[in-house]
Amino acid sequence: MAKKKKVPEASKKTEQKRKQQAIADRTFGLKNKNKSKKVQMKVEGIKKNVMKSGDRRQLALEEQRKKAKAEQKARRKAAKDEQDALFGEALLAIGKKQTTNQKGGKAEAKGRDADDDANKKTTSRAMKMMYQSKWCHW
Fold first, then answer.
1. What is the pLDDT of residues 60-97, one digit of tens each?
2. Is the pTM higher than 0.70?
3. pLDDT confidence of residue 35
4. 8 phi and psi angles, rounded to 5 deg
5. Residue 39: CB partners within 8 Å, gap ≥ 6?
6. What is the DSSP secondary structure assignment for residue 55, as one 8-state letter?
7. CA 122 to centroid of chain Cα atoms
8. 102 backbone dihedrals φ, ψ, rounded to 5°
9. What does the DSSP 8-state code read for residue 2?
10. How far apart are the first and last CA of the chain?
11. H helix intervals, 53-119
C-alpha cells in the first residue's frame, strides 16, 4: 500500500501573518478605532478570537509543551536551591577563580603567560639574531 503524502503545515510565521490579515479584514471600516472605547473593546475581542482560532489539538500540544518546560525549569531551580543550601559555602570556595584580577571594576582573567613581561629581562637570542641579520631591513 502506498504511503499517503503529508500535507505541509504552515509555519508559525505564515500562520501569524494570516491571523494579522484576518484581524485587519474584520476591523476594516470601523470608525474611531483609536478614540471610541466601545470600538476598541470590539477590536480587542476580534483579536482574541482570531488569535485563539486554529487547530485545537495543536494548541493543546503547545500548551502541554509550555507547561512541561515550566515544570522542568522549576525542578532545575529547586535542585539548584537544594544544592546551594547543602553545599553553599564549599561550592563558593571551590568555584572562585584565583587567577582573576580586579582592574577598574572589571574582572580580568590572567592567561598562561600573564607574568611573562615581568620575568623577561632581555631580548631572546632568536630576536637578536633576527635584528642582526642582513636580510632584515626594518
1. 888 999 999 999 999 999 998 888 888 877 766 776 55
2. no
3. 82
4. -65, 130
5. 30, 31, 32, 33
6. -
7. 48
8. -90, 115
9. P
10. 79
11. 56-95, 116-119
